[in-house]
């Protein structure tokens, strides 16, 4: 008997994968190969676990979403011993990543997993059902697909078995309150989903937006996490928009600095004579009127009509924001457009400009809230101020560089 015949006689394949419920593998059934899960004896010896498993399978039958895998329980005189999965070419997510780690770098792969699971988890929550564990070895995908699928839901087993026996080596993906038999809710799945995304980025560089989101999603205390999946997804979108705005701003500043640096390099230099001109007028003197600091903020109401008083308050709030932000922006941009910094390397320009950009965005948010402005209003005004100050700074540098070259020629 050769090796292939031996495998066929046993009705199993050589490859088995461990997962919370037992061992996942492929075996031959009636001449066809089917995927099955050989359940842990420690689990099926528990009558309550078997009842919970049957209830879970009956619940899953009513759900035909693409993220739900269906299975059939097999039992003999000793009880339930196996789950035969529906027809399909299945792999665990853990197996996919082990055989092809570079797949996480494919555009949209992790986003698709996050979005698809979020959609299905929300449908579960509407029925009071929670996943609780999203270990990569318990998530299935069809070969050639990135749609994640689950077979069972953890909340069915919460009070029916030893959770350490159920989750075993997968406890990392289970919230602390689940393992302690505490209250489970949407926040428990926020934690599980956060741990899964954390695992997906173990072999690669995690983007800013995911790093910021996961810090809160995986907090040990449920009250410190996102309270809903919508809140979690919203935070990811917000962090992603912030990152894009920051990168765009840094790129714009870097290009401006590079253009000025190239211009200065083309202007003749003097050896000893230094050109001195009177201190320029403050950049903000011509931009804004007198300072006004009211003690009350803007009054907003969905039921009251906008009055002249409301418009006056709005106008004064914008003036306050313009005045304060312009002063701080002038100070920050003056550090970037300093002659000594301009004569440095391009690498230093980029590092300094990124730091300054982050500070400008922080001040925009902080001062906008103090003035009672929305994020959109504060962002629009701040961009106008930064654009004008940048143009003025560049013009000053150009004038000084030109004057420096002229004076050098006269000395010669």
Record keyword descriptors for this entry.
single chain, 412 residues, alpha+beta, five-stranded antiparallel sheet, two-stranded antiparallel sheet, 14 helices, 7 strands, elongated
Walkthrough of the structure:
By secondary structure, the chain is an alpha+beta fold. 53% of the residues lie in helices and 10% in strands. It contains 14 helices and 7 strands. A hairpin with a 2-residue loop joins β2 (22-29) and β3 (32-39). α8 (186-200) packs antiparallel against α9 (208-217), α10 (229-266) crosses α13 (346-371) and α11 (308-336) runs parallel beside α14 (375-411). The longest helix is centred in the middle third of the chain and has 38 residues, at 229-266.
**Regions with pLDDT < 50 over 5+ consecutive residues?**
1-13, 283-304
Distance between the termini: 100 Å
Radius of gyration: 31 Å
* Total helical elements: 14
Q: What order do the strands of the largest sheet run in, or round the barrel if closed?
A: 1-2-3-5-4
Structural class: alpha+beta
Q: Give a count of the beta strands, DSSP E runs of length 2 or more.
A: 7
Give a quick account of the main beta sheet: strands, pairing sense, barrel closure. Answer: 5 strands, antiparallel
User: For the residues shown, what is the average pLDDT?
Assistant: 81
Task: Please indicate the percent range of residues in DSSP E strands (runs of 2 or more).
Answer: 5-15%
Give the overall silhouette.
elongated
Which range best describes the helical content: under 10%, 10-25%, 25-40%, 40-55%, 55-70% or over 70%? Answer: 40-55%
Order of helices and strands: HEEEHHEEEHHEHHHHHHHHH
């Amino acid at each position: 008997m050769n090796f292939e015949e031996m495998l066929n006689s046993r009705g199993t394949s050589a490859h088995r994968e461990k997962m919370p419920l037992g061992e996942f593998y492929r075996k031959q059934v009636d001449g066809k190969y089917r995927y099955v899960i050989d359940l842990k004896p420690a689990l099926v010896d528990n009558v309550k676990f078997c009842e919970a498993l049957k209830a879970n399978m009956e619940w899953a039958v009513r759900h035909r979403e693409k993220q739900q895998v269906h299975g059939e329980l097999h039992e003999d005189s000793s009880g339930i011993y196996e789950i035969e999965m529906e027809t399909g070419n299945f792999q665990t997510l853990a197996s996919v990543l082990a055989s092809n780690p570079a797949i996480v770098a494919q555009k949209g792969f992790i986003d698709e997993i996050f979005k698809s699971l979020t959609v299905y988890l929300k449908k579960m929550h509407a029925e009071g059902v929670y996943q609780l564990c999203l270990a990569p070895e318990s998530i299935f995908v069809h070969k050639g697909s990135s749609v994640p699928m689950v077979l069972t839901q953890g909340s069915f087993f919460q009070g029916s078995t030893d959770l350490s026996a159920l989750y075993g080596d997968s406890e990392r993906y289970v919230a602390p309150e689940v393992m302690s038999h505490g209250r489970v809710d949407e926040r428990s799945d926020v934690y599980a989903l956060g741990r899964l995304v954390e695992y997906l980025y173990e072999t690669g560089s995690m983007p800013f937006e995911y790093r910021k989101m996961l810090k809160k999603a995986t907090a040990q205390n449920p009250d410190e996490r996102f309270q809903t999946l919508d809140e979690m997804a919203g935070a990811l979108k917000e962090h992603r928009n912030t990152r894009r705005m920051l990168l765009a701003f840094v790129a714009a500043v870097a290009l401006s600095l590079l253009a000025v640096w190239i211009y200065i390099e083309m202007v003749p230099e003097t050896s000893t004579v230094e050109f001195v001109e009177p201190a320029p007028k403050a950049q903000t003197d011509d931009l804004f009127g007198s300072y006004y600091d009211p003690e009350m903020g803007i009054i907003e109401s969905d039921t009251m009509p906008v009055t002249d008083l409301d418009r006056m308050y709005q106008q004064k709030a914008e003036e306050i924001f313009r005045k304060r932000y312009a002063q701080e922006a002038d100070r920050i941009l003056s550090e970037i457009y300093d002659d000594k910094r301009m004569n440095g390397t391009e690498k230093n320009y980029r590092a300094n400009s990124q730091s300054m950009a982050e500070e400008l965005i922080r001040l925009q948010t902080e001062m906008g809230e103090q003035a009672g402005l929305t994020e959109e209003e504060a962002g629009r005004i701040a961009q106008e101020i930064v654009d004008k100050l940048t143009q003025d700074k560049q013009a000053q540098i150009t004038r000084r560089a030109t004057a420096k070259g002229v004076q050098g020629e006269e000395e010669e």
